[in-house]
Amino acid sequence: MSWKKIKSNIVYSNPYFRVLEDDVMQPNGKEGKYFVVGVNDFVSVIAEDGNQDIYLVEQKRYTIQSMSLEFVAGRVEDNEEAIQAAQRELKEEAGIRAQNWKNLGYAYTSNGITNQRFHVYLARDLEFGKQELDPNEDIAVKKFSIEDVRKMILDNKIIDGPSIVGFYKFLEYRN
Amino acid sequence: MSWKKIKSNIVYSNPYFRVLEDDVMQPNGKEGKYFVVGVNDFVSVIAEDGNQDIYLVEQKRYTIQSMSLEFVAGRVEDNEEAIQAAQRELKEEAGIRAQNWKNLGYAYTSNGITNQRFHVYLARDLEFGKQELDPNEDIAVKKFSIEDVRKMILDNKIIDGPSIVGFYKFLEYRN
């Protein structure tokens, strides 16, 4: 036996996510509720230059009330493909265009409460230009060696889960 | 300039998470809203036996309408320490007690929308007993070699982000 959907009910929404209180059949055969945060997919982008350095962005993350160093990331808009979102976000957040793109896989952020999925992309053959930030974004682009990023992950200085997943998919791909 | 909290407002809640629509000062100096899914921390537990095999659990995840193979995980209840949650969840979900515990770090699942954080634990010196599942849980315990888990991650067969983070923190710790 496992969870089966009877009926989906949107009980809350804002421009970024919604909450569903679905009527479900539980594994024990009884009817119940399952609470889901419904969110669009997003992308996480690792940009690597010809010197084997990689580019991260640093910004204050309001949710955790702290600065966070991460790979470029952003949501896949409705009617947009993940690769398009990756190319758009890398240009907007970091001012970088890339000639060479590779999908390195995907994962879910927290499947106990949300359907949120992210796709990892590697961008190479880079051209550098200006960021195209919203008036509301304050994002610094920073370049690191691969080994420095690894150390920051092990020291809990990089604490963004999707970036950590992306980094190791990148390391495995390079090996 | 960066996001500053003016006032937190809970606009929705259920037993598992809540939604905040906070009044904030935006990086551009104007007042606005920030939407946050507020959730307790959780733990992700890697149990390794004396043969260097590791134990995962498989269950249907309603949110993604699919089976998912993951490390034992569960939320840190109010007034519970993360290590206590790790010990409790490993016993309940997998029927395993461990003599030897090591914290391998932490990360956030998706800091654009939620404060949800997870703590990674390694459990060793294992004793095997019976699962203590809720009537509502249907969870199978499965044993794998480390290399098999690595392959399943690279093949997108393990797609739980926190488990992937946990696995590589474990690999780095062993090296």
Question: Short description, anyone?
Answer:
2 copies of one chain form a homodimer. The first copy, chain A, is an alpha+beta fold and 175 residues long. Chain A is built from 3 helices and 11 strands.
Write the layout of secondary structure elements.
2 copies of one chain form a homodimer.
Chain A: E1 4-7, E2 10-13, E3 18-25, E4 31-38, E5 42-48, E6 53-61, E7 66-70, E8 72-75, H1 82-94, E9 96-108, E10 117-128, E11 140-145, H2 146-154, H3 161-174
Parallel strand pairs in A: 5-10
Antiparallel strand pairs in A: 1-3, 2-3, 3-4, 5-6, 5-8, 6-7, 6-11, 9-10
The fraction of residues in strands of chain A falls at over 45%
The CATH topology of the largest domain in chain A is: Nucleoside Triphosphate Pyrophosphohydrolase
What is the total domain count of chain A? 2
User: Total strand count of chain A, please?
Assistant: 11
> Main interface pair?
A-B, 66 and 66 residues
| Biggest sheet character of chain A | 7 strands, mixed
Instruction: Give, in order, the helices and strands of chain A.
Output: EEEEEEEEHEEEHH
Which structural class do you get from the secondary structure elements of chain A?
Answer: alpha+beta
Q: Write out the CATH superfamily name of the largest domain in chain A.
A: Nucleoside Triphosphate Pyrophosphohydrolase
Level-2 CATH architecture of the largest domain in chain A:
Alpha-Beta Complex
Unreliable stretches of chain A (pLDDT < 50, length at least 5) are none
Q: Which value, in Å, is the CA radius of gyration of chain A? A: 18 Å
CATH class of the largest domain in chain A: Alpha Beta
Compute the separation of the termini of chain A in Å: 41 Å
Q: Mean pLDDT of chain A, as a whole number?
A: 96
Number of helices of chain A: 3
Residues in helix, % of chain A:
10-25%
Oligomer: homodimer
What is the overall silhouette of chain A?
elongated
